[in-house]
Design brief:
Blueprint: E1 8-10, E2 18-20, E3 22-31, E4 40-49, E5 53-58, H1 59-71, H2 76-80, E6 95-99, E7 104-111, E8 114-121, E9 128-136, E10 139-148, E11 151-158, E12 176-182, E13 187-195, E14 199-201, E15 210-212, H3 215-227, H4 229-235, H5 242-253
Parallel strand pairs: 8-15
Antiparallel strand pairs: 1-15, 2-14, 3-4, 3-13, 4-5, 5-6, 6-7, 7-8, 9-10, 10-11, 11-12, 12-13
Length: 261
């Protein structure tokens, strides 16, 4: 249960429509278990940009949103026949909005079935730009370093793409971030494709109740959820067998390496 003193719940009725001019696809390679170097997985992520904003989310989330938008006006009977289990799946439910004129970014994320929004200051990320250069996928890049979310990062940006942005919450360099990784290579984002085809994106905010909170409280709730996941599932009305409980606990133990520590 979430206390009103900490959180405000809003019902989302309308969505802004963003006209996207550039789409950058990043391959995220990540290690979900810090103790197992063989636990690496990958997922493609999208950076959608125009002159005023950028939106970062997983490609599968984008595809799922597109499917949901397409079926929104279909007859109820047809919608009821959809197999939700076949929808694209992702391990990363966040959507990150960066507005060029704002000094903060907005993060939409979820914990189980609850949707959250919190803001974070852009200037919390300090960059050190070096003279090192490297060619990555045909782009001349320059090295920069930063510390963020408990990790030291090495980034390679290119002013051949004069967009001061990048994957996840990273931005603020004089060119697009082509590759960025923490020094342990637990999280590596690398640009693999670019498209300049215009498109419309309008599914940024969740379509149901949204808890507006702060970043510290969001991560406190996330930690509490992971600690009490069995109880939360049971509260949703599911009967949980003992062997399933143990399986969930073991699975969580192997997801001990979030991008922000």
């Amino acid at each position: 249960m979430f206390f009103i003193i900490f959180l405000t719940s809003l019902s989302i009725q309308t969505q802004n429509k963003y006209v996207i001019q550039h789409t950058f696809t990043y391959r995220l390679t990540y290690q979900s278990d810090s103790t197992d170097v063989y636990a690496k997985q990958s997922e493609d992520m999208l950076l959608l940009t125009n002159d005023e904003v950028s939106i970062f989310l997983s490609e599968n989330t984008y595809l799922k949103d597109s499917i949901l938008l397409d079926i929104k006006n279909k007859p109820a009977a047809e919608i009821g026949m959809l197999d939700i289990s076949r929808f694209p799946k992702t391990q990363f439910h966040f959507k990150i909005l960066k507005e060029k004129k704002e000094d903060s970014i907005t993060v939409y994320d979820k914990i189980y079935t609850d949707n959250f929004e919190y803001k974070e200051q852009k200037n919390g990320m300090k960059w050190s730009i070096t003279t090192d250069t490297l060619s990555i996928n045909g782009l001349k890049c320059q090295k920069a370093t930063t510390y963020y979310g408990g990790r030291n990062y090495e980034a390679w940006f290119s002013n051949e793409i004069p967009i001061s942005d990048g994957p996840y919450k990273f931005s603020g360099l004089p060119g697009l971030i082509v590759k960025i990784s923490d020094l342990k290579n637990h999280y590596v984002f690398e640009l693999i494709a670019k498209s300049d085809m215009n498109l419309i994106y309008s599914n940024l905010k969740p379509g149901k109740d949204l808890f507006i909170t702060t970043k510290p409280i969001y991560f406190e709730k996330l930690k509490d959820y992971k600690k009490n996941i069995i109880e939360r599932i049971a509260q949703s009305g599911f009967t949980i067998k003992d062997d399933y409980k143990e399986g969930v606990k073991q699975k969580l133990k192997k997801r001990n390496n979030p991008i922000e520590l």
